[in-house]
Amino acid sequence: MKIICIGRNYADHIAELQNETPDAPVIFLKPDTALLQRNQPFFYPDFSQDIHHEIELVLRVSKNGKNIDEKFAPTYFDAIGLGIDFTARDLQSQLKGKGLPWELAKGFDGSAPLGATFRPVADFADLADINFHLAVNGEVRQRGNSGLMLHPFAAIISYVSRFFTLKMGDLIFTGTPSGVGPVRIGDQLTGYIEGEKILDLAVK
């Protein structure tokens, strides 16, 4: 099972981090050991003092595919969930500053919490109008809508499948909106899709 992540997919998030807008989807991977399921707690690692939350809609791949045409891409995922791309921002900045890969800042153990449930694609009237948000200790920190993605679901699947064969059970984190920020030990993170609580995570 692969965890495929899309970076810089919301213009407001690109602006807040002062990054350049990419011409194509920015792709990085997380190992399966990054996955945190069933609302298990996230244990703050000792190699960072600046872990940031990044809430994202997550696609569950439902069949194998390679070089998928964009018009057929919607048939390759059957459910949408919610996940957090935890990022060690201090470590990422150090690595980027040296021109080095930054997987250490993105792919560490527990860096990909996944909501306890997925919602079937059929539940959504319009895949380009899905609202989601993240609250930290009851305060809303991030709000997003799938219609604001620079690269929508079908484009992501088509592009990714040019380089990586997609397999049933793969997860695609589709990018985060603005409002990313640090988490602290003792925080409670709750994530929602269309008002339904999907993710409930304690930081320890």
Write up what this structure looks like.
Pfam families: FAA_hydrolase. It comes from Hymenobacter algoricola. Keywords: Hydrolase, Metal-binding. It is a single chain. The protein has 204 residues and is an alpha+beta fold. The chain is built from four helices and 15 strands. It has helices spanning 11-16, 89-97, 103-106, 153-163, and strands at 3-7, 26-30, 35-36, 51-53, 55-61, 77-84, 87-88, 112-113, 119-120, 131-136, 139-145, 171-173, 181-182, 188-193, 196-202. A six-stranded mixed beta sheet has the order 2-1-12-5-6-9, covered by helices on one side. Strands 11-10-14-15 form a four-stranded antiparallel beta sheet, with no helix packed on it. A three-stranded antiparallel beta sheet has the order 7-4-13. The longest helix has 11 residues, at 153-163. The chain is globular, with a radius of gyration of 16 Å. The two termini are 27 Å apart.
Q: Would you summarize the structure shown here?
A:
This is Fumarylacetoacetate hydrolase family protein. The chain is α+β, with helices and mostly antiparallel strands.
Structural category is: alpha+beta
What fraction of residues sit in β-strands?
Answer: 25-35%
Unreliable residue runs? none
Share of helix, binned: 10-25%
Element-level helix/strand string = EHEEEEEEHHEEEEHEEEE
Specify Rg, calculated over alpha carbons: 16 Å
- The strand order across the widest sheet is 2-1-12-5-6-9
Count the DSSP helices: 4
Overall shape: it is globular
Overall average pLDDT: 95
Largest sheet: 6 strands, mixed
Number of strands: 15
Distance between the termini: 27 Å
Keywords: Hydrolase, Metal-binding
Domain Fumarylacetoacetase-like C-terminal: 2-194
InterPro entries: Fumarylacetoacetase-like_C, Fumarylacetoacetase_C_sf
Protein name: Fumarylacetoacetate hydrolase family protein
